[in-house]
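PROTEIN DESIGN WORKSHEET
SECTION A - STRUCTURE
LENGTH: 196
TOKENS:
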């Protein structure tokens, strides 16, 4: 991950924190991060995990794509070459979950974030997520039991799942590795003042 991406995310985190009138210590408390780690993220010296970005997006009430907006400005179109998206790997002793942001920032009515998600390690704990809007998943490889609320769905290559993002969801059981699926998150857009 290039330094430019970390810098851009840091700028957005600091901007959102200042807009909300929150201290580093308060945001750290709300997200479970240490104040030192939050400072490193704001200064572009550390790249946050997807779980950290998710926690920050909930505190600031913005979609996760907000943190990438100053990195990749778009004019109604976002082109990403193969293996050219922003890669986000989970933090931990073993790297087993990889997210690749395939594009963002197109349009203002709806915020759309397409991800290619790869799961290669059963030892990592996978959190359940909640976010505004809806999500579409299309399985490409492997098998997974995907949970949405109280229901579980066994997904194989070619299967799709389209659901409300506000209900807790995520992989419940990694059945056949490696697992690869396309995830498209669509959230209400924001106006130029950051309001939905």
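SECTION B - SEQUENCE
RESIDUE ASSIGNMENT:
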């Amino acid at each position: 991950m290039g330094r430019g991406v970390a810098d851009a995310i840091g700028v957005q985190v600091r901007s959102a924190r200042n807009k909300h009138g929150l201290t580093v210590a308060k945001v750290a408390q709300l997200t479970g991060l240490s104040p030192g780690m939050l400072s490193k993220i704001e200064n572009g010296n550390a790249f946050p995990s997807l779980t950290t970005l998710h926690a920050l997006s909930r505190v600031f009430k913005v979609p996760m794509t907000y943190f990438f907006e100053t990195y990749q400005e778009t004019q109604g179109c976002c082109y990403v070459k193969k293996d050219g998206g922003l890669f986000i790997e989970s933090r931990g002793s073993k790297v087993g979950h990889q997210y690749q942001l395939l594009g963002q920032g197109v349009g203002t009515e709806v915020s759309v974030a397409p991800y290619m998600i790869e799961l290669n390690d059963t030892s990592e704990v996978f959190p359940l997520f909640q976010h505004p809007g809806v999500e579409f998943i299309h399985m490409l490889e492997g098998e997974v039991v995907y949970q949405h609320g109280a229901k579980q769905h066994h997904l194989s290559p070619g299967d799709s799942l389209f659901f409300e993002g506000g209900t807790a969801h995520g992989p419940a059981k990694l059945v056949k590795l490696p697992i690869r699926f396309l995830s498209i998150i669509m959230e209400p857009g924001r106006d130029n003042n950051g309001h939905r």
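SECTION C - NOTES
The chain has two domains: 3-68, 86-188.
The longest strand covers residues 169-188.
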